[in-house]
Amino acid sequence: MMAMMVGLVPFGILFLLQRTFYAFEDAKTPFTLTLVVTVIATLANLASLLLPLRWLVVGVGAGQALSNFVGLASG
Questions:
Q1: What distance in Å separates the CA atoms of residue 65 and residue 71, rounded to the nearest whole number?
Q2: I want to staple 59 with a disulfide (CB 3.0 to 4.6 A). Which of 48, 65, 66, 68 is the partner?
Q3: In a 3-state reduction of DSSP, which class is residue 14?
Q4: Are the C-beta atoms of residues 27 and 21 closer than 8 Å to each other?
Q5: How far is CA 60 from the centre of its chain?
Q6: How many Cβ atoms are within 10 Å of 15's Cβ, its own excluded?
Q7: Mean per-residue pLDDT for 16-29?
Q8: pLDDT tens figures, 46-65
Q9: Average pLDDT over the chain, rounded to whole?
C-alpha cells in the first residue's frame, strides 16, 4: 500500500488529463498514455518476479507507481 501511495498524485493527474482530452474529442492521446502506463507496469510486474516472495507485492506496487510517473512524464 505504501509503495502505491507514492504514485497516487500522478495517477490523479493522469486521470484528469485523460478526461480533458476526451472532452476535446481527442481519443488518441489517452490511448497513448494508457499504452505507456500499461507497458511500464507490465515490465515492472515481470521484474518483480525476481524479488523474494516476501517483497513481490511491494515490487508490484512500486511498479504501478513508477508507471504512473512515466505516463505523466510522457503526457
A1: 10
A2: 48
A3: helix
A4: yes
A5: 11
A6: 11
A7: 93
A8: 999 999 999 999 999 999 99
A9: 93
pTM, to two decimals: 0.86
Give the three-state DSSP class for 16.
helix
Given the C-alpha cell 499504452, which residue does it identify? 35
Amino acid at 26: D
Q: How far apart are CA 58 and CA 75, in angstroms?
A: 26
Q: Which stretches of 1-75 are DSSP H helices?
A: 2-5, 8-23, 28-48, 56-74
Q: How far is CA 30 from CA 7, 10, 14, 57, 70, in A?
A: 18, 14, 9, 27, 14
Output the nine-digit C-alpha cell for 51. Answer: 524479488
CA 53/CA 35 separation, integer angstroms: 28
**How far apart (Å, rounded) are the C-alpha atoms in residues 34 and 4?**
17
Measured at the alpha carbon of residue 2, what is the angle toward residues 9 and 64, in degrees to the nearest 5? 60
